[in-house]
Amino acid sequence: MAQEWSKDLVDGGKVEGNAWLLAAAYPEFTTDGAVISTLGCITDISGQKWMEGFQKRKMLEAVELKRQQENFIDMKSHEMRNPLSAIVQCADWIGNSLAKFDCGDNNIVIPREVIDGYADATETIVLCAQYQKRIIDDVLTLSKLDSDLLIITPNEVQPILAIRGSLKMFDFEIQNKEIDLRIQSRPSSSSSLINLVTNAIKSTVSESRREIGSRELIYLQIEVQDSGPGLDEQEKNLLFKRFSQTSPRTHVNYGGSGLGLFICRRLTELQGGQIGVTSTVGVGSKFAFYIRALWRGLEVDGIHLSVVLMDLEMPVMDGLTCVKMIRQLQDEGKLVGHVPMIAVTANARSEQISSARECGMDSVVTKPFRIPELEGD
After folding, report:
1. pLDDT value at position 203?
2. Which of 128, 252, 256, 272 is the most exposed place for a label (fewest CB within 10 A)?
3. What's this model's pTM, rounded to 2 decimal places?
4. 317 and 369 fall within a common domain
5. Four-CA torsion 296, 297, 301, 303, nearest 10 degrees
């Protein structure tokens, strides 16, 4: 009957496996060859057998990793050569075309179709260079992850601006494929939002308020949804593995090395988050990840303010009260830096202008005004 074996490790871990026993028997004979006694010995070799299995698994993993690395090198070499060929060919075409023109003539007329060709060739060079940069970035990031040299350093960011900056590099590809790319930081369905708010109002029996304090831990979740071919369960299980793609046709159709999602998973985990995917074959996929962050406080998300035009007559809170509160927050250090504020009012009397300046306004303009007047202030 098979029995289980386990052993506690010094670091608090535990290894388990099947129990193995080594039995040995040594008979004692008389001078005429008869057995008079038997000496037996039973030794527990479970640890030895577990170590043999462990070494075998490690050897198989090393062989598989070597095979994956060889495939990776072949794949990367292929991906690097393709854009290099396009770059060289486009550069040669531009150079040969320019050589046909007489450089001694200061009044050269270049045909429109030639200029269009230069623009297309230049755009191709830029796209190929960007593609190669992505490949190099993936390899460098993977190297840092393997060597534990990648350090996550907290930094103050505005999430929407960071997302828009990341997507900017894909402008050419998005335009060429005529993809409708939308960034949504709030619910897009006003009808659903209205229903949810209505239900919340009905079910709220008393006043409730939650304040998120400065430096409080929050979680940021980002989702990316596509209308691609979708993935089945077997393909989803391969997604986040190193050097792994969902099928052999994936590299042929879309390129890539099987590193992108693996790197995404490692980087997300380093920041205290998780990444996952939901997908339906023939419909598309939705990738989502969340990371930990610290709430900075009273900063407006995603907006850099050069100047604030403050109307003095506003509902709920007038402009003078508002500017006093903002200046108080600056004095307390809750707002970093000085926020330029210009009062906009129809009251042109000198005492009202002086009152606005005393409350904290940097300047005052009267209605109606023009933009050059603001630039002068």
Report:
1. 40
2. 252
3. 0.43
4. yes
5. -100
Task: Pick the closest to residue 173 from 181, 185, 163, 165 (CA basis).
Answer: 181
Residue 224: which domain range? 159-186+214-294
Residue 222 and residue 348 in one domain: no
Among 263, 294, 325, give the residue marking a domain's end. 294
Statement to judge: residues 272 and 326 lie in one domain? no
Say whether 25 sits in a helix, a strand or coil: strand
Cβ pair 170, 226 in contact under 8 A: no
Block residue for tokens 């052999």: 248
Q: Which residues of the chain have pLDDT under 70?
A: 1-2, 71-82, 101-108, 147-151, 165-173, 175-176, 184-216, 242-259, 295-304, 336, 348, 370, 372-377
Contact 17, 50 (CB under 8 A): yes
* Predicted pLDDT of residue 367: 75
CATH of the domain at 228: 3.30.565.10
Per-residue model confidence (pLDDT) at position 258: 61
Helix (H, G, I), strand (E, B) or coil at 262: helix
Task: Specify the amino acid at residue 74.
Answer: D
- Residue where a domain terminates, one of 294, 327, 353: 294
Q: Give the per-residue pLDDT at 311.
A: 84
Is 237 domain-assigned?
A: yes
